[in-house]
Design a protein that fits this description.
Chain lengths: ~100, ~550
C-alpha cells in the first residue's frame, strides 16, 4: 500500500535578508511558519511549488518540506533540518528566529 | 607581513566595484539567481540555513592588528559582533545582508583583504604552518612561497574553471602542523644532499567523501622551478580530472584512478615544456615578497620576572606549559590563544576579543597574529618577558583556556547550526565533549588528543584525520554520529578507521567517554598518547569499549 501522503509546505530564503520564509495561502511570503500554506495531496503540492516559484527576485532556493500536524492541528516540519530552520543555531539562542520569537 | 602593492590594491578595488554592480543587478532583477550564484560564490558569499554567510580569505592565516580590528569593526557594523575562524584559516560572518556585502568587501580592501576565491572550483586560500617564521624546527618561512602562490593563483585565467576546488598547503618543518597531506598539493620545504632548499611535492590528498593522503610526486624540486611545476600539475588535472561527476572530480580521484606513477609521468612531461617556456619569477617581485616575511626586530628582554611567575603562579604555569611552545629564540615563545573555551563554540571570537588580541599583538608581540587550521589564534613572536601580561589580559577576556592540543581543543565545522550542506549538528557535540572533560588537570592527564567533528561527509571538520573523528549523518531522519579512530593530520598522516555502527545524538558523548576510559585503562604509562596506544593496540580494545557486549545483545 502506498505510504500516506505527508502534507507539504513551501519554503525558501529571502533574497535580501537571507532568512527563512514560508509561502502562505494568501499567495505571499511570511517569516512565521504558522502562516505556511499546506498542500495535502501530490497535485496540490506541485501547484504550491509552482506558485511559490513565481517570486525569483524576492525569494530564492524554493523547495517543499514535509510537515506533520501536531496534536492541536498546527503544521510543523517533519525533518530535524527544517525544525532547526524554524529556530536558529543551537549554540546562540540570541540569534535566528528563536530570538525574534521571544520578543513577539 | 606582505602589504598590498598598487597592483593588488587596484585589483581588489576593481573586484569590489564589479561585485557591487552584480549585487545591484541581482536586486534589480536583471541577473537571475542562477546567473548570480557562481558570481557570489567566487566572492565568498554563501546562502546558508538561516542567513547569508560571508567567507573572507586570510592568506596563510596571517593577520596584524590593523586587519584584526577591521574584522572586528565589520562584524559589529554589518553582522552580529562575532566571527568564526575556519579550518582553512578563513573567517566567516554568519549574518550579513545581501545589500551590505559590497560595503563589507570595500572595508576589507581598505586593509588589504578580500574574499576572492574562498569558494568555487578554483585554487583556494593557500594555508601554511601557523608557526611559520617562529618555529624552531623550520628551514625557512614558508609564507613567502604561499604569497607567491597567492599572487600566481589569483584570477589565473587558465585555472579559473577547474573540475573542482583546489587546495594547497605548505610547511617548512619536519613536524607537519598544517595538515598538508590532506591537500590537493602538499608542499614541504626541504634541503637536498648538497644543502640546497627546494620542495618535496605531494599530490592527491583530500578529505571529504573519499579521503586520501597525498602521495609524493617529486622528492626534490628546485625552488626556482615551483611555478612551472605547479602549473604542470594543474594542467594535467584540468585536462584529465573528471568533470562528469562532482564527487569524482578532485585531483585525488585522478591520482587514485591512474596511479601516482602515471600522474608523475604526465606532470613531468608537461613540466618539461612549461619549464622551457618559463622565464622565471620577476626577481624584484620575489625579493619584495621575501623581504615582507623577514623576521621582526627581535628584542632581548630579561626573563627573570617570567621565570618567577612561571614558578609561583600555577594558573600561568599551566597556560604556558600547555599553550606555549618553543620559539626559534630561547627568550621568545609562540603563544596559542585557545578559541575553545569549555562549552564555547570552536573557532568563534567576539569583536571585543578580536580587538584585545589585536592590542596584545601590537603592544607585546611584533604586531603579528595567526589563525591555525585548528581554529585557534596564535601570537607567533612573544618575548617571554611579556607572557605574564599577555596571559593576564587574555584571562580577563575569557581567552586563556589552557587546553591547546588536549581533549577539549576540538575542531568542529559549523554543521547544521549554520551550514546548508550539513547532515547533522557538530558544534553541540564539541561543546558537550568539552564540558564532559572540563577539568583541565584531568585533560592534561589524558594528554595530547585531537578530536575532530564534521557535520557532513564533506569533512570540513577534518574528522578523518582526528585521533578520534566524529561524522554527523542523517540516518532515516535522525542525527547519527559515526566514529573513526587513529586518524592523524601530522607528518605520519593517516585516515582514521571507522569503528562500527553510529551513535544517536545523545549517545555519542558517552561513547567518546568510554573510548577515553579505555585508553586510560590500556596505556602503558601516562606518556603514551591516545594515538600511540591506538597504534600499539589496534582498534580491538577501543571497539570493545564503544560496543560493550551487553548493549549488543540488548539491540539484537
Amino acid at each position: 500500500m502506498a505510504r500516506q501522503f505527508q502534507p507539504r509546505m513551501a519554503t525558501g530564503s529571502d533574497l535580501l535578508e537571507g532568512d527563512v520564509v514560508y509561502f502562505t495561502s494568501a499567495g505571499d511570503w511570511s517569516r512565521r511558519i504558522e502562516d505556511a500554506a499546506l498542500a495535502v495531496n501530490p497535485d496540490a503540492a506541485a501547484n504550491l511549488l509552482s506558485r511559490a516559484s513565481e517570486f525569483p527576485n524576492a525569494v530564492v532556493g524554493v523547495y517543499l518540506v514535509e510537515a506533520a500536524l501536531d496534536d492541536r492541528g498546527r503544521a510543523a516540519p517533519a525533518h530535524f533540518r527544517e525544525v532547526f530552520r524554524t529556530r536558529g543555531p543551537s549554540n546562540y539562542p540570541q540569534h535566528g528566529r528563536q530570538a525574534e520569537r521571544e520578543h513577539v | 607581513m606582505y602589504d598590498y602593492a598598487d597592483f593588488d590594491r587596484a585589483f581588489v578595488q576593481g573586484r569590489v566595484a564589479e561585485f557591487r554592480d552584480q549585487v545591484e543587478r541581482r536586486i534589480a532583477g536583471s541577473l537571475t539567481e542562477e546567473e548570480f550564484l557562481p558570481l557570489r560564490l567566487r566572492n565568498g558569499l554563501y546562502l546558508q540555513l538561516h542567513a547569508y554567510m560571508y567567507r573572507i580569505a586570510i592568506p596563510y592565516g596571517t593577520l596584524n592588528s590593523r586587519k584584526l580590528r577591521q574584522l572586528a569593526m565589520i562584524s559589529e557594523r554589518w553582522d552580529r559582533g562575532y566571527g568564526h575562524f575556519t579550518t582553512r584559516t578563513n573567517i566567516q560572518f554568519n549574518w550579513p545582508k545581501l545589500r551590505d556585502v559590497p560595503d563589507m568587501m570595500a572595508a576589507l580592501a581598505e586593509v588589504g583583504m578580500h574574499s576572492i576565491q574562498t569558494s568555487g572550483n578554483c585554487v583556494r586560500n593557500v594555508t601554511a604552518d601557523h608557526f611559520a617564521g617562529a618555529a624552531a624546527d623550520e628551514i625557512e618561512d614558508p609564507r613567502a612561497t604561499a604569497e607567491l602562490l597567492r599572487q600566481w593563483s589569483t584570477d589565473h585565467p587558465e585555472f579559473a574553471w577547474l573540475p573542482r576546488k583546489f587546495k594547497i598547503g605548505i610547511t617548512a618543518a619536519p613536524h607537519d602542523r598544517a595538515a598538508t597531506k590532506t591537500h590537493d598539493i602538499a608542499l614541504r620545504i626541504v634541503r637536498d644532499a648538497e644543502g640546497a632548499v627546494g620542495y618535496e611535492v605531494s599530490v592527491g590528498g583530500g578529505l571529504g567523501r573519499t579521503p586520501m593522503i597525498a602521495k609524493t610526486v617529486r622528492e626534490f624540486l628546485p625552488k626556482a622551478e615551483l611555478l612551472p611545476y605547479i602549473e604542470a600539475i594543474l594542467e594535467v588535472y584540468n585536462l584529465a580530472g573528471r568533470r562528469d561527476n562532482k564527487h569524482k572530480a578532485r585531483l585525488k580521484i585522478l591520482v587514485h584512478e591512474i596511479g601516482i606513477d602515471e600522474v608523475r609521468a604526465r606532470v613531468e612531461a608537461v613540466f618539461e615544456e612549461r619549464l622551457a617556456a618559463f622565464r622565471g619569477v620577476n626577481p624584484g617581485l620575489l625579493a619584495e615578497i621575501e623581504a615582507a616575511f623577514a623576521p621582526p626586530a627581535f628584542v632581548a628582554l630579561p626573563t627573570e620576572d617570567y621565570a618567577r611567575a612561571h614558578a609561583e603562579d600555577p594558573v600561568f604555569r599551566s597556560w604556558v606549559d600547555v599553550n606555549c611552545v618553543a620559539h626559534r629564540r630561547d627568550d621568545y615563545a609562540i603563544a596559542t590563544i585557545s578559541l575553545k573555551p569549555i562549552g564555547g563554540t570552536p573557532g568563534d571570537a567576539t569583536a571585543a576579543q578580536m580587538r584585545l588580541v589585536a592590542d596584545l599583538a601590537e603592544a607585546y608581540a611584533h604586531d603579528e597574529v595567526r589563525v591555525s587550521h585548528e581554529q585557534n589564534l596564535v601570537l607567533p613572536h612573544v618575548p617571554r618577558a611579556h607572557l605574564p601580561a599577555v596571559h593576564a589580559a587574555l584571562r580577563e577576556a575569557g581567552l586563556a583556556t589552557a587546553n591547546v592540543g588536549l581533549v577539549s581543543d576540538i575542531i568542529a565545522c559549523p554543521g547544521m547550526d549554520y551550514c546548508s550542506l550539513a547532515t547533522a549538528r557538530s558544534i553541540p557535540i564539541a561543546q558537550q565533549i568539552a564540558e564532559t572533560f572540563a577539568d583541565l588537570d584531568a585533560q592534561r592527564d589524558i594528554g595530547p588528543l585531537k578530536i575532530k567533528v564534521s557535520g557532513c561527509i564533506n569533512a570540513c571538520g577534518h574528522h578523518h584525520v582526528g585521533h578520534i573523528g566524529i561524522l554527523g549523518l542523517d540516518r532515516a531522519g535522525v542525527e547519527n554520529y559515526q566514529i573513526t579512530l587513529g586518524g592523524d593530520a601530522a607528518e605520519a598522516a593517516a585516515i582514521g578507521e571507522r569503528a562500527g555502527p553510529g551513535f544517536a545524538y545523545d549517545e555519542i558523548v558517552p561513547a567518546v567517554e568510554r573510548l577515553i576510559e579505555a585508553y586510560l585503562d590500556h596505556r602503558l604509562e601516562p606518556g603514551e598518547s591516545f594515538l600511540e596506544a591506538y597504534r600499539r593496540l589496534g582498534a580491538a580494545p577501543f571497539k570493545a569499549a564503544l560496543y560493550p557486549p551487553e548493549e549488543r545483545s540488548d539491540a539484537a
